[in-house]
Amino acid sequence: MKLQKKKSSIGQWICHIILLILLFLVMFPIFLMIIKSFKTIEQEIHNPFAVTVPFYFKNYSLAWKYISGYILNTVLIAVLCTLGIVTVSSSMAYGFTRYQFPFKNVLFMLVLSLMMIPAVLTLVPQYCMVKDFGLINTRLGVILPTIAGSLPFGTFLLKTFFSGLPGDLFEAADIDGANSITKFSKIALPLSTPILATLGLTSFLNSWNDLIWPQLVLRKESLQTLTIAMTSFTTNYYSTTHSYAVPLAGYVIASAPLIILFMLTSKQFIRGLTSGAIKM
């Protein structure tokens, strides 16, 4: 018994040490980003890892002047992508769960197989389609392919959850004369709030952080997103000043909405992950 307790305690210590190392690897770059965003150029060169006082807030005002014009574009694209992904994925998942139609399982497997295709392989075909439809330099050119590319995972996630909903609820609704839209909107969606919040939050984060596809489609500066603007701003600013202080302040500003959103929805996000894992 004593040997088993010693082995278990040693194993716990090893796990804790590994977790602390991983936590350090994740948090240290964020810590550096924050402390360097409050430094002057001289402080960044001579004391790159130290916390310097007083904080130099002018970096944030300079960064805000540059990126403030791109925030609205980013919010608009991220919100529309999120709404589209959640709406279409939930409709598809409900159809695959509650309806019987020919080749249903085959079609669902085809949808799942799309998740196996690397996103890089679809860039050129998607770009050609967007160009043929005249959607280059439009927000729709970013939004529609983003929604389409996220549907397989969203459909799979929600179908797994919908399959675990009690069938008696839908049978009772049938007896009461409820139609399909009523059952979907009044029963399925309210019971699926945690998993919908999880899908919505991950979709919003992915849309907010996306760089490659918006950079291909949005060539007009007035339509560009934060990720594109920050990439070019970092390169140009460092080439002239050899400092990352102001760009890092911009990254802190760009990250703030995501942190606030996650703090507000963290309970729903965790509930969605745990409930989805249990049903799987």
Automatic annotation (TrEMBL):
> What biological-process GO terms show up in the record?
transmembrane transport
Tell me the CDD domains matching this sequence.
TM_PBP2
Which superkingdom?
Answer: Bacteria
Give TM segment ranges.
Answer: 12-35, 70-94, 106-124, 136-158, 244-264
Q: Taking the first listed entry, what is the main subcellular location of this protein, grouped into a coarse class? A: membrane
**InterPro entries for this protein:** MetI-like (IPR000515), MetI-like_sf (IPR035906)
Instruction: List cellular component terms (GO).
Output: plasma membrane
Q: Where does the record place it?
A: Cell membrane
The topology of this chain with respect to the membrane is: Multi-pass membrane protein
Offer one Pfam family short name for this entry. Answer: BPD_transp_1
**Residues covered by the ABC transmembrane type-1 domain:** 71-265
This protein's UniProt keywords: Cell membrane, Membrane, Transmembrane, Transmembrane helix, Transport
Family of this protein: Belongs to the binding-protein-dependent transport system permease family.
Which protein is depicted?
Binding-protein-dependent transport systems inner membrane component
Q: Which organism is it from?
A: Lachnoclostridium phytofermentans (strain ATCC 700394 / DSM 18823 / ISDg) (Clostridium phytofermentans)
